Amino acid sequence: MHVDTVAGACLIFTGTLLIYVSTLYASAAGGDASEFAFVACDRSIAHPPGYPTFTMLASVGTDFFRGEYFGTRGPAWGANFISAVAGAGCAATLYIAIVTASRDATTDRLTAHASAALGSGLLALQRNVWLNTIQSEVFGLNNLFVALAVLCAVRLDKSTSIVDAAWGALVCGLAMTNQHTFVLFGAPLAAWALFCPCRRVGLLTPPHIFCLLLMPLIGIVPYAYLIFNSGRLRNGNYFGQEGVNPPGAWGATHTVKGFITHVTRQEYGSFRLYSGAERGEHRAFLGLRNYLWNLSAETYGIALPLMTAASWAAAKGGGRKIMGKHFPGLAPVLVAYTICTVVFQLIANLPIENELYLSVSARFWMQSDVAAGFIIGCGTAFLAEIASPKFVLIRPKWSQLSHVLGGIFGFRSLTFDTGFTNMCGVAAILAARLTTNYSAVDESDNRIFEAFGREMLRPLPSDARLMVRGDLITNSARYVQRCLGYRRDVQMIDMSMLTYKWFVPVQGPNFPGFVFPGTHYHPYEKGGFSMRDFLDANIAGNRAGIPSNRDGNQGSKDIFLAGGWHDDDASTKGFYTEQPFGIADRIVSVDSAMNMKRTRPQWMFKEMRNTLPNMTDALPAKETVELKYPEGRWERVAIKDYYAAHHRLAFELLTWGISYAKEINDERSTLSTGKAMDDSTWALERCVEIIGWCVSEHPKPVPSFYWRNLGICHQQLLVARKNLMNTNHNSKMLSAWTRYVESGQTDEVVRMEEGYDVIAHIVATTGHTARNLK
Question: Which DSSP letter does residue 455 get?
Fold first, then answer.
């Protein structure tokens, strides 16, 4: 490898890493990133297929940055840093691959470096790649493995040797321990390597074949981590017996069946990204269109033309030089890129009509983007080389004036070297990309998910029992528990894990406050139990029936729920209901809920108000949220859940006020009319205050039901005060319902809601009357 190539790669690595580190997430990020952070802290097992290579690397980062020496940088920042290093390594490796492929095809060495800088720089500064590399996710490391595979293909095509072939096989094995979708790109390259360059130079002999088969097996050795780090005897607060994993760890990978099930993703579906949707051709075309649009938008529209030029070079070359130019590795990478991109969209079953799932799917585009960066670099070098070697600014041959100027200034033509010109153009493009995307992906102050997890656990009573559901809810709370040691007394069960048969034997001992009435949570399978069975076994009517906590003391008799019930289990309906308790809900029996309704709202409000989350210090300005965190970002989901916690309390007050107003009008009621009316009015006024705050502070778009319920509050106050002409409440009711009706004009789901037509009629009638009065 030439010195200038190494120097250029070091420059790319350093520059990319500095940019990534300056924008690194300050704490845990959303979705799976929080899970990888706490799994790295515990050195436990992540969701299928386990991701052992990234987990081991991330654990180095979490341990290194856990100390007080690094100030506010905590374990998650360390895991984020490891991902950033891998992303910077990907950019440097891709740079080397492009220079190696284009060096012999270009007469100007600087052109090869400029082309490599463009291909690797556009990849590194692409918003999707950048954002997913500055958090503890597996994609940065997977991008590095893809870039290494591309470099091995280039070297094999250029000068085939058993060493390069063995390195390529090792990379493929390692990559499969990090992300299984690598097979879509690695398998075509591996097939090409075996049947083209290796066969051409006679490397398919028994010793060589044995070596090439051995190297991938060496590469998958990190999967041994799943065996040795599962079910081991530990001396911790949560687990003290053999066969038990830390809270939040997946599977029973210390058993043969559990290991195979986990590695092959049988619980999700081996070739699925999502367990709740089917594949469809419409999704494949939609996904492919979204991918190509994003690739074009993130490269100022130059990606597809440059990739077309590279394709033309590869198609016309056929392994020989065209016009004296040959780009080793370009043809197989083009084929692998096409297969990877198309096949992924065909097998992916995420419901990408939903913006959140579209953003999840977009993370898997990066594998194709790495190959696209290489193709863009080769296409740039090809076009630069077949163009004029000199870029002529002035060629004064065609007029008398030119001869005069030429005689005066002593030149026939003013020229710039092509390589220097290309490098200046590349620098301008990358500077523009950096300037455009920097503020959009700068997460150096982002502590939203850490604050969300803290505020969910903060109001819970000592030794509370909590059931959680959903990535945001589960992983953010688990991170602050496992990595930061916050509220470890709360016993938190993941409802998704509870559906697997390994959970009770492997995770059950971590939660002594819970009773499990069956083998797993599934109301329709043998040995399973419904949620009603589970709650019947765990919610006691008096403290004598409450299970002891891990210290042998009686914990809270209440069970709390965050994330809602499972969609396919309606067994709790009519028996249990939820009562707002901050971000979570307290589970109470229906009879208990009815009795609570008879307490004065002031008492209920005083207790519930203290449970409301306060994330003021962690949340950016509303305008920033609207621009930086659109629908589909985990930050937007967390912010919506934050305001929803406040709205749930307001809705509880609203239903309380309405029910009391009905009892007041009931002749059989034993309530004191005056006192009850005052309580009802007080509850409705608090409802107006809370929802009014929500709609004023919530980033746009405000959920439509906020406006609907705000209008109902004002309407109920009009009725309660028996003054239907109250101008203040009447105008505010009309204003809120107008916003609700307007949202229904663009959303069919809103229009289908019960009562929408009635409210739309009131708005239309009242508005018409008001215009006539004016």
Answer: H
Residues paired with residue 589 on neighbouring β-strands, in sequence order: 576
Q: CA dihedral defined by 573, 579, 585, 586, rounded to 10 degrees?
A: -90
Extract long-range pairs of 260-264: CB within 8 Å, 24+ residues apart.
Answer: 261/48, 262/45, 262/48, 262/49, 262/50, 262/226, 263/48, 263/49, 263/50, 263/223, 263/226, 264/48, 264/49
276 Cβ neighbours under 8 A, 6+ residues apart:
351
Alpha helices in 318-390 (DSSP H): 330-347, 355-362, 366-386
> Is residue 583 a contact partner of residue 456, using CB atoms and an 8 Å limit?
yes
Q: How far is CA 325 from the centre of its chain?
A: 42
Q: Give residues with Cβ within 8 angstroms of 692, minimum separation 6.
A: 710
Q: Dihedral sign for Cα 317, 323, 329, 331, please.
A: negative
Plot region of 265 (φ>0 → left; ψ -120 to 50 → alpha; else → beta)? left
Q: What are phi and psi of 748, to 5 degrees?
A: -65, -30
Report the half-sphere exposure of 85 (CA within 13 A, side-chain side): 11
CA–CA distance, 506 with 243 (Å, rounded to integer): 6
Helices 183-195 and 139-158 sit at what angle, rounded to 10 degrees? 10
Report the C-alpha gap between 713 and 718 in whole angstroms.
9
What does the angle CA 148 – CA 79 – CA 255 come to, to the nearest 5 degrees? Answer: 80
Cβ atoms of residues 520 and 495 within 8 Å: no
Give the closest residue to 140 by CA, choosing from 93, 173, 100, 199: 93
SS (HEC) of 503-554: HHHHHHHHCCCCCCCCCEECCCCCCEECHHHHHHHHCCCCHHHCCECCCCCE
Q: What is the per-residue pLDDT for 405?
A: 41
Q: pLDDT tens-digit profile of 547-577?
A: 455 454 445 678 999 999 988 898 999 899 9
How far apart (Å, rounded) are the C-alpha atoms in residues 585 and 602? 19
Per-residue model confidence as pLDDT tens digits over 322-334: 444 578 989 999 9
Nearest to 511 by CA among 466, 558, 480, 556: 466
The b/e string for 6-38 (b: 16+ C-beta within 10 A; e otherwise) is: eebbeebbebbbebbbebbbbbbbbbbbbbbbb
Q: What angle do CA 133, 136, 139 make, to 5 degrees?
A: 50
Confidence of residue 373 (pLDDT cuts 50, 70, 90): very high
Handedness of CA 264, 268, 273, 279 (dihedral sign): positive
State the pTM of this model: 0.88
> Are 51 and 108 spatial neighbours (Cβ–Cβ below 8 Å)?
no
Q: State how far the alpha carbon of 149 is from the alpha carbons of 141, 329, 402, 429, in Å.
A: 13, 10, 54, 27
Alpha-carbon span 709 to 751, nearest angstrom: 15
Helix (H, G, I), strand (E, B) or coil at 363: helix
Tokens of 239: 């687990």
pLDDT at residue 409 in the model? 39
Q: Which of 198, 422, 207, 214 has its CA nearest to residue 306?
A: 422
CA-to-CA separations, 129 to 141, 336, 354, 476, in angstroms, rounded = 11, 20, 21, 23
Number of C-alpha atoms within 13 angstroms, CB side, residue 2? 14
